[in-house]
Batch of 4 targets.
Target 1
Amino acid sequence: MVTVLLGGLVVIAVAFAAAMWRARARAGTRGISLEGIGLGAVTNFFDTLGIGSFAPTTAYLKLRRMVPDSFIPAVLNAGHALPTVTQALVFIALVDVSTKLLVGCIVAAVVGALAGAPLVVRMPLKLLQAIVGVALLVAAALFALGNLELLPSGGTARDLSGGLFVAAVAVHFVLGALMTAGIGLYGPSLAFLSLLGLDPKAVFPIMMGACAFLMPASGFKFVASDRIDHRVVAGLALGGIPAVLLAAYVVKELPLTTLRWLVVAVVLYTAVVMLRAATRREPAAATA
C-alpha cells in the first residue's frame, strides 16, 4: 500500500505540473518570479522541519503586496503543491505509521479539499479576507502554544483504532476543506493527532501525505481560475523542491523556538491587516 501511495504521488505530481504548464501557456504568462523562488525556498525549508508554509507565505505575500488578496489561496495551494509532494515522498518512505490511518486521513483530506475548492474560487473578496485573517490568528496561536509547551506532546502510538480513528479521519476532512481557503493543515493536524496519543514523528507522513494529495487535487481548479499569479506559483515550486531535500536529508533538525516567535509577530500583524481590509467599508463608487 505504501508503494501504491508513493506511485500515486508521482503520477499526480506529473499531472499537476503539466496542468500548471498548460495554464501558464493559456494565460500567456512568461518568466518566473525570482522573489517567489526565494520565498519558496525559505518557507518550504522550514515547512519540512515542522514550521508550516501557509502562514509565513501569506504574511510575506501580503506585506510585499506581491499578489491581490483574492489570489492568495490559489497561490498557496498551487505554489506549494510540488514541494509538499516532495516532503511526502521522503517522509512516507522513511517514517513508520499505520497504513490504515495514513490512507484514511489522506482520503478524507482530499475529499474535503475537492468539496472546498469550487467554493473558494467563487468566494467574495471580503469573506475571503476575513477567513484568511482568522486563519492567521489561529496559526499564530498554535505557534505561541507550541513555544510555551502548552500543546499536547503526543504519545508513542503509531496507530489509532475505534472512535479515535474515526475522529482523526473526520477532522482531516474538515482540515482538507479549510486548506483550500489558505488555512494550513500542519499545525492543527499535529496538535490533534498528538492529543489522541499518536507519536508526533508519525504525524509527519500523515499531514504531509494529506497535503501532498489534496493540494494538487484542488490545485487543478485553482490553476484554471483567473485569480492566480503563475509567475509566483512557479517561483514557489522551483525554490521549494530543493529546499525540502536540503532540510530533510542534510539539516534534519534546528532550534526553531526563536523563529516561531518571529513568525507569531509577523503573522499577527498580517492577520490584523487582513481583517481590517475585510471590515473596511468601501466607497460606493468603488464598490459599483
Target 2
Amino acid sequence: MVNIQIQTSELNLWFGKNHVLRDVNLPVHSNQVTAMIGPSGCGKSTLLRCFNRMNDLIPETRITGKITLGEEDIYAPRADVTTIRSRVGMVFQKPNPFPKSIFNNVAYGLMIQGKFPRHELRDRVEESLRAAWLWDEVKDRLNSSAMCLSGGQQQRLCIARALANRPKVLLLDEPTSALDPQSTAKIEELCLELKKSVTILIVTHNVAQAGRISDHTAFMYLGELVEFDRTEKMFTVPADKRTEAYLTGVFG
C-alpha cells in the first residue's frame, strides 16, 4: 500500500496577477526522495515553498486548491503555521547558518519554544548533528562560531537545524548548487540515509542528481506538473515529449 505524506489537489497560486502554479496534483510518498526538476522559472521552488507556507510571506499571494500533510489541510483557516513549519523543515540553496555557535544554531528552534530543559537540548543537538553526519567533525567545538565551518559543513549544519524539530518532511531547495563535488556527494549520500526517517522533497537543476538519489520525479514546466512517475521509469521511457526534450537537453 502506497503511503502518501503530502498531497496537492488542484493547487493554483498567483503572485498578484501572475498565475505561477496551475492545477498541480502531486503525491509525495512517505520515506522516499521526490525530486522536482524543470527549467528556471517553471514553479519548482514556489511549489516547494507551498508545503511549509513560506509563500505566505510574499505580498499579494493567492492560493486555491488543497495541500494535505498526512490528514491535515495545511491551508485550512485554523491551521497553525508554526506547527506546520516545525513538521516541514526547509534547507535553502545557499548555506545560511546563524552568526551563533554551532550548538546554538541547531538548538535555536527548540530554545525559542521554551519547553526543553538544557539536558534535552544537548541530546537533541547531538542527535541532529549525528543524523546530518556532522557530529564527529564538530563535537569538540560546539561553542565555536558556525561561520568557521566549510560550505559543505554549513549546509549539513542547516540540515541538522531543520532535523532538530524532528520533522515529518524535509524540503531541500537546490541544496548542493553552491557546493563543490565532494560536498555534493556527501549531501546526496546523506539524503539516501535520511529518507529512512523523514520524507524528502528536493528541487534540483541537476538532472543527473535527480537520477542518482530520487525514488520519484516530478517534471514542472510553465507552472504545470507535466509528468510524475518513478524516476527510473521517467528517465527511461518518459510519457510526455516535453519531459523527454528536457531530459535529453533539448531545452533547459
Target 3
Amino acid sequence: MFGFTIRYLRGSVTAADVSRGSEKDLVEWPPHPDRLFCALVQAWADAGCPAAGRTALEWLEGLGPPLLRCGNVLSSHSVQHYVPVNDNWSLVNNKGKPFALIQESLLTRDRKPRRFAVGTLSEEVVHLWWPDAAPTPELASTLAGR
C-alpha cells in the first residue's frame, strides 16, 4: 500500500469546481487527485527536475486513480476579489480613461473582479492511497522528499 495524507491547515478549501467552466462559485470537493499530482510536479520542477523525481512521478502516474477518504464540506460560498490583469503598457484603458500609475512608473494595472470558492471542512485531513501499490524503497524515499 502507498498513499499521501494532505492536511488543510486552515480547515478550509479554496478550489473551484473546474467542471463548471468559467463559473467559480462552487467548491471542488472531494479534491481531485490531479491537484496532488500537479503539486508534486511543481515541487519536482522547483527542485531542479532531478532524474529520480521524474522516475517517481512517472511511476505514480501509471497507478491509476487512488482511493480517497475525506470529510464533508460544512458550508461554502464564493468571495469576490479584484485582481490585477496582465501588465498594460498603455496609459489609458479601452474606455479612454487614464490608468492609475503604480509608484509613478509607466507600468499600470487594471483590476478585474474574480470569484474564489471557499468551503469549510468537517475534517482537515484527506487520505489518498493505492492499496495494491508497492513502490521500491528508492521511489518511496523520493516521493517522501528525502
Target 4
Amino acid sequence: MSETVMTLVRHGETGWNATGRIQGHLDIPLNATGRAQAAAIGERLGGEAFDTILSSDLERALQTAIPIVRRSRQAIVRDVRLRERHLGVLQGLTGEEAALRHPESWGAFRSRNAQARLEGGETLCEFSQRVVRLIESLLSAHAGSKLLLVTHGGVLDAVYRYTTKMPIDAPRSFPIYNTSVNVLRHRGGIWTMDTWGDFSHLPEELAMDDT
C-alpha cells in the first residue's frame, strides 16, 4: 500500500503581515524578514528529494519556494488552488479599518461563520471545499509521491481541519507560523501528522509569532 507524504510550508512574512493588513488574493511580496525566512527554509528543504513542488501563484508564496529549488533547479508548479481565501471587501484593510467600514463582514470573518459570504469573496465553507478538493486531487494524481506545497495560512488551517476532522467553524487551537514545516502522511485512507508548526530552521530573530 503506497504512502503519500505532503510537506506544507506557509510563505514568509510580508509587510502587510507585519502591520496586520488583510491580504487574501492581493499580491503582496515578502519583506526583508520574509526573504530571510525564505532563505532559511531553502537551506532546510533544499536538499530533500520531492517528486513534485507546487506553489500558490501569488508572489509571496513563489518567493518562498524559489530558494528551496535553487540547488535542484526543480520546476515549481504554480497552482491557483493554493491561494489564500478570497476575503472580498476586507482585503487591503487592517482589522480596525474592517471593523469600522464593513462590520458585518468583519464579524462573520472573526466568528468563523462558515456560510456567511464576505462581499466579493468566498465563504469559509467554499474556501474549505476548494482546499479539500485540491488535496484529494493531489492524492489521486500523485499517490505514493513526496509533495511540497508552498501556500498560505488559511490553506494550512483548512488542511489541518480536514486531516484531523476538526470542524471548520471551531476556534483555532493550533499554530500557523511563517515558513513553518508541516508534514502529513496518507496511507490506506488514514492521515497521520509527522510534525506541525516546526520553525526550528529559523534563527531566533526570524522566528515569528503565530499570525
